[in-house]
Each structure stands twice: as structure tokens, then as C-alpha cells.
Design brief:
By secondary structure, the protein is an all-alpha fold. It is globular and about 40 Å long.
Length: 158
């Protein structure tokens, strides 16, 4: 396993998580999001029993969300010879399915968010497609666009 490649996958996974989160924040601020609260904050609140002050909950939620997205980006880079946009999208869909059958029921929102609104399933799918497409495009772009005289294909930007 190439540690540099895994680090690159982790870094681009964090960037893709930021892109996904930006879309989520816009949705929440505009009232278009069907989620009662950002899911990472809901997870932290559930795990801590709501004992943390709101700023601490949000800070921990952001750190964990970025780490989770980075972890899966690094994991895909570790097991895939060349990450393409389609690999990224498949990763996004797989992570979305995990959310639907594990995370949302853990939060008490039901399978696919059904105890809140079925719109949660669609909204979170869009977010995970943003993550996957962004991650796959960034990893594929770095690999496909590299030449011998350019930056190594698996390096993240300085």
C-alpha cells in the first residue's frame, strides 16, 4: 500500500466533504433542506446525550465529519488502482446507504429518514453524490493529468 496515495485520498476526501457540507449548509440556510438539523451535529448530540454546549457539538461534528470523509477517501485510494469519478460516485452511494440503514435509525429518524420525511433520503443522496463525484473527479484529475515533468499524480496540493 502506497502511504502517499492513501494520504492523497484522505486529503481529497476531506475536500469532497467540504464541498458536500457547503451544499448542505446552503440547503439549511435557504430552508430547502428537509433535515431538522445537520446530521453530523445530530450524531454528536445523540452520542453525547446533548451534554455539550452547541459550539462544542458543532466543532466536534465538523472534525468527525471531515475525518469520516477523509477516511473513506483514503480507504478507496488504498484499494483501487486508479480512482475514477465513477468509483467516487459508487463510494458516495455506498456511504449514503450506510447512512440510511444505520445512521438515520440510530438518530431515531427511521430507515431512509422515514419517521421525519422521505425527502431526507433524496436530499442526502444528492449530498453523497456531490461528495463522490467531487472526490472521484479530484483523484482522477490528479492521476490522468500527471506527466513525468509535473507533480506526482497522488500528491495533494501544497
Amino acid at each position: 500500500m502506497d502511504a502517499r496515495r492513501v494520504r492523497s485520498g484522505f486529503g481529497w476526501g476531506v475536500v469532497a466533504t467540504i464541498a458536500m457540507s457547503a451544499v448542505m449548509i446552503v440547503g439549511m440556510l435557504t430552508g430547502m433542506s428537509p433535515m431538522p438539523k445537520p446530521i453530523p451535529a445530530a450524531i454528536v448530540g445523540n452520542l453525547t446525550g446533548g451534554a455539550l454546549p452547541q459550539p462544542a457539538t458543532m466543532a466536534l461534528a465538523i472534525i468527525l465529519h471531515l475525518g469520516y470523509g477523509g477516511f473513506w477517501g483514503g480507504a478507496l485510494a488504498a484499494v483501487t488502482r486508479r480512482v475514477t469519478i465513477w468509483h467516487g460516485i459508487a463510494l458516495g452511494v455506498a456511504l449514503w446507504l450506510i447512512m440510511q440503514v444505520v445512521v438515520l435509525p440510530f438518530l431515531g429518524w427511521g430507515l431512509f429518514g422515514s419517521s421525519q420525511t422521505p425527502k431526507i433520503a433524496v436530499a442526502t443522496l444528492v449530498l453523497h453524490l456531490v461528495y463522490g463525484a467531487t472526490y472521484g473527479w479530484l483523484m482522477d484529475r490528479r492521476t490522468a493529468g500527471a506527466t513525468e515533468s509535473s507533480t506526482a499524480p497522488d500528491e495533494t496540493p501544497a
